[in-house]
Amino acid sequence: MVREFRPEVVMHFAAFIEVGESVRKPLKYYDNNLSRTLTMLNVLVQEGVKHFVFSSTAAVYGMPEKLPIPEEHPIKPINPYGASKAFVERILQDMETAYGFKYASLRYFNAAGADPLARIGESHEPETHLIPLILKAAKGERESITIYGTDYPTPDGTAIRDYIHVEDLSRLHLMAMDYILQSDESLIINCGYGHGYSVREVIEAARRVTGRDFKVVEGGRRPGDAPVLVADNSKSLKLLGWKPLYDDLEYIIETAWKWELNRRF
Questions:
Q1: Catalytic: which of 29, 30, 81, 103?
Q2: Which residues are CB-neighbours of 51 under 8 A, at least 6 positions away?
Q3: How many domains, in total, are found in the chain?
Q4: What's the CATH code of the domain at 76?
Q5: pTM here?
């Protein structure tokens, strides 16, 4: 395929992404996220592809030592999912030294929302992301939504995450691609809005957007979850000139809700 199309740049999105599952099944994550990515990178080098955009994750940081988290934060993943992505990032650094391979590693915080016209949205099987799970409860497809951990050191005891609308995230990919192609320099960048919302805040926002109530169950913490993950996004703003267009939790949920109501599968 690479030989046939001769791409100038390759974007890599494929991965297993569930933190809890990675703790239970680490070899599954290292095989798919690390070993198979390495196979692909070998092909790219052999075929002379020199530019690469990689979907990484804020999970490479582990337990934050500083908030918001800058790109220079130590890489200390606390779960196999984050470790699998961190290993790939290290491989990319070594490939740049050895082969002049230029890459953009985009460290996602929490991608959320859907196409505003409801043409495409989140659809995982099984679903593990918070906002789609909440909306399924609001839609009546689930009996309840579970809060995993109510004793975190946060204002309301629940974990805080930085939610970024998928369309803003998509634009960041294109801007990062243009950057490495035009500058011929590699790039590591956070993808987030620079502020976060707790699980309880997301639940209440979903109630306002949908106009529906649903049962909430309180459970224990999941292994591998950090209390707070919020991006320092100053690099994306200054270096790339990125300007978020959809930095609004209720709008993010509104687009996801429209998708849920209109989906056919």
A1: 81
A2: 8, 9, 10, 101, 102, 103, 177, 180, 181
A3: 1
A4: 3.40.50.720
A5: 0.94
